[in-house]
Design brief:
The chain has 2 domains: 3-11 and 144-209, Helix-hairpin-Helix base-excision DNA repair enzymes (C-terminal) (Endonuclease Iii, domain 2, Orthogonal Bundle); 15-139, Orthogonal Bundle (Endonuclease III, domain 1). It is globular, with a radius of gyration of 18 Å. The chain is mainly alpha-helical and 222 residues long. The protein contains 13 helices and no strands. It has helices spanning 3-10, 19-25, 30-39, 45-59, 64-69, 72-78, 85-102, 106-112, 114-122, 129-139, 148-157, 163-171, 179-192.
Length: 222
């Protein structure tokens, strides 16, 4: 049984804890999805939810037009729970202007295809590889985003170190229809078991098969 199969069977996904799929599946527009992902950068989804909901209450629908009209200071105050709120406010204002300029829609990204859509998104202010990939995989294009949890797990498993190397490893071993679900499962596994500090090796379903396994004074659960 390989690592993917073990984690897949072990993790009972709590998708409601992840802001991007929650926003998109609840009928959010593309700009709301991008805003949600930007708010989740370098912070917890819990904080991102607080900031997103604060902005949503103030604006009703989070659109490029509405964000463009907000004063930067007002926007920063609304998204303060996410942290780095002044930096994020500048990024969101710039993104709003870019959306208005380019007329970005989900259909346009789908027509571009994954590679071109990724390059286009990464040309926008505040959008890097992970943010672009999270947007793409949520709207249905093939991408496997790699966050800090997935990077840590991959390095402990010895399957890769760089973003592109890790992303490609999983894309080569999963059907595209499962990229989003397994991306979320890996993050949840990193939060619950393969933690940055005090990893719970004693309850890890991979156990001693993991190159980084550390005995916790009891047998791992297989």
């Amino acid at each position: 049984m390989d690592y993917i199969e073990v984690v897949d069977r072990y993790v009972q996904l709590r998708v409601e804890e992840f802001i991007a799929p929650v926003v998109w599946r609840s009928g959010g527009n593309l700009f709301e999805l991008v805003v949600a992902v930007v708010l989740s950068q370098n912070t917890s989804d819990k904080n991102a939810f607080k900031a997103f909901n604060s902005l949503k209450r103030a604006l009703g629908s989070i659109t490029p037009e509405a964000v463009a009209k907000l004063a930067e200071e007002e926007l920063a105050a609304l998204i303060k729970p996410a942290g780095m709120y002044r930096i994020r406010a500048r990024a969101l204002k710039a993104l709003a202007e870019a959306f208005l300029k380019h007329g970005i829609t989900p259909q346009r990204l789908l027509e571009m295809g994954a590679e071109r859509a990724r390059a286009f998104l990464m040309s926008l202010p505040g959008v890097g590889k992970k943010t672009a990939d999270v947007v793409l995989v949520n709207i249905g294009l093939p991408a496997f985003p790699v966050d800090t949890h997935i990077t840590r797990i991959a390095r402990r498993w010895g399957i890769g170190r760089s973003y592109d190397e890790i992303s490609r490893w999983f894309m080569d071993r999963l059907p595209p229809a499962r990229y989003l679900e397994f991306h979320l499962k890996l993050i949840q596994f990193g939060r619950d078991v393969c933690r940055a500090r005090s990893p719970r090796c004693g309850v890890c379903p991979i156990g001693e098969r993991c190159p980084s396994f550390k005995s916790a004074g009891r047998s791992p659960v297989i």
